[in-house]
Design a protein that fits this description.
about 160 residues; globular
């Protein structure tokens, strides 16, 4: 569990697959997040598991390493991101951390829909976070990404045609 998440080449392998157009291999379970480094200003990439799809063009992911995860800290500082999933091209999106009540509702729905998977994930999350992920004081931060519809007003710094 935790050991796999610390194996850099294994965690980064999905990024290469997305870049060559093979994101469909993940069946919509992963998305590729393109975000801006909060200090460096450089473009960064991370593949994240989708835990919920509240609507078309919206994705919710969990930060298994909590608020100390680099991608999490970057999207809080720079919420204008790009996401890619399945065979869809990269799209401009806005990142928004969910509040504790919203997070609890998403986690409860995930547990109902995927009880066996949650049984395996929960101890991994609790080990990486060092805290419980359910109930009062739950420590599993979730982030929602909402794709910006083509033609809609875009936040400064987002280029939906040729990258950042």
């Amino acid at each position: 569990g935790v050991r796999i998440l610390s194996t850099r080449w294994l965690v980064r392998a999905p990024i290469a697959l997305f870049r060559i157009g093979a994101g469909f291999l993940f069946g919509g379970r992963l998305l590729l997040l393109e975000h801006t480094g909060r200090t460096s200003g450089l473009t960064r990439y991370v593949a994240l598991e989708v835990v919920s799809r509240p609507s078309r063009g919206s994705f919710v992911v969990a930060s298994g390493f909590g608020t100390r995860a680099q991608w999490y800290r970057n999207v809080v500082a720079h919420p204008e991101v790009r996401v890619r999933w399945s065979i869809a091209p990269a799209a401009a999106a806005i990142a928004r951390p969910l509040n504790p009540a919203e997070s609890a509702a998403v986690i409860a729905a995930y547990v109902r829909a995927h009880p066996r998977t949650w049984e395996k994930l929960k101890p991994v999350f609790e080990a990486t976070l060092g805290a419980p992920v359910e109930g009062p004081g739950a420590a599993l931060p979730l982030v929602r990404f909402d794709v910006i519809a083509r033609g809609a007003a875009r936040p400064r710094g987002i280029d939906t045609v040729g990258g950042r």
